[in-house]
Amino acid sequence: MISALPDDILLTILSLLTLKQAVATSILSSRWRYLWTSLHTLNFRYEEILHRNDDDTDNEWGCKIYEADYMERFMQVVNQVLRSHKAPKLHEFGIHYPLDASRGDLIDIWVAFAIAFKVSKLELNFSTNQVPIWVCSFKNYSFPLDFFDKTKRNEPYLVQLDRVFSVCAPPLNVDNGFECLRELILKSVDLTDEQFETILSSCTFLEFLHVLYSSRLVNVKHAVPHMKLKSLEMYRCFQLKKLEIFAPNLVSFKYLGPKINSSVKDAKQLVHACMRSNWETWEFSRTNSLGLPNMQRGDFVFGQFAAYLPQIEHLVMDASSFGRTKVLDNGPLLYNLRHLSLLLEMVASFVKVSPFLHRLELHFELYPLQDPELRRIAVSPHNYLKEVLVSGFSGNKLVVDLIMVVFDFAIELEKIEISTAYLDDDFLVRKSIEQLHGRMPAQAQLYILDDGL
Questions:
Q1: Residues in domain F-box (predicted)?
Q2: Is 141 within the bounds of a domain?
């Protein structure tokens, strides 16, 4: 019987359940009654804790989340579970509810509890993304960084601060020395330029930094080499004008936002790069395989990273930023490039200089320009290109012609995925896909990523 298994195995099983489900096992038998109190993972999600009526619309449910009864119920559940908790250490601790500074004292207690139990991953999600922002005026909760102050003999056990929404960062102190922190994800955290620099200065063992929707960043600069930073992601910081980072061991750099002057110094290990420009709010629902949304349009000057192109393995960019220039014609072959994701104009040039390319992603605007230059692509047979992904496909003739040209030179093509753009009339899309079926290499498989077709 399963109840005869050792506690460690049973706790592993419980960890696969939601917290509500894990607590519910206490009614099974005396063997299970208190087992859940030793869980190493505590994630409190309002969707799982609170009851939603079947007839509630999304707006009605969103409004209920702000009602005092629902909020009090959520906080009571958290407090009850924490009072019963017995595990000596926490691997994960998360709060997922749109709370603000009015509940700051209680949130402080929860954070202190997690730190006292040497939490490895701390997640505070106070986002209003799932509920209507107009029902409540937020005053942001300030994360108590002084809990980790070494001068108070409180060792920082935090390894990962994940998905922090709507949190105002107070002044940082380099002397805090977050030696255990490896991964920091800040979403909707209004960092200043100085605070961003101080994070890199104080978190000397930080390996991954993700910043999304930080509206106060303008001129970001970290001139001292950060020897541990391997991945930097900067998304939609719309006031940002300049970014200078010195990270000799940086492996991945991803950027989505306004055109900026960027400099990543001495990144000899850089193999994953994404540079996308966007001021549009509309985007396709699907994401590319590097996890970024396929945006409608953009024109970022990728030339600032030209020196790193020969070492890049995965590249996502707005190829349209090159226009009609001959950036790659006289450059070196990109022998390391295996995965390429770009927009239109530079397809031929990149394929020509990437002899070992395995995967090609093509992202089209909803209504592509009628550019006859896209038809005139001359590429020698490519022996390594196995997969092609097309997003934003609307059946436009120029796009169809371009894909057929890819069929001609990708002689070893095995798979093509097409994600269609939303259109009221999909007749043209269907007809164009039939044309592609007729021209596809015999060994290749076609997949349409749209349930309606």
A1: 1-49
A2: no
pTM as predicted: 0.79
Interval 205-248: pLDDT, tens: 899 999 988 888 999 999 999 999 999 999 989 999 999 999 99
Please write the tens of the pLDDT for every residue from 132-144.
Answer: 444 445 677 777 7
**What CATH number does residue 339 fall under?**
3.80.10
In a domain, 362, yes or no: yes
Domain total in the chain = 1
In a domain, 192, yes or no: no
- Is position 336 within any domain? yes
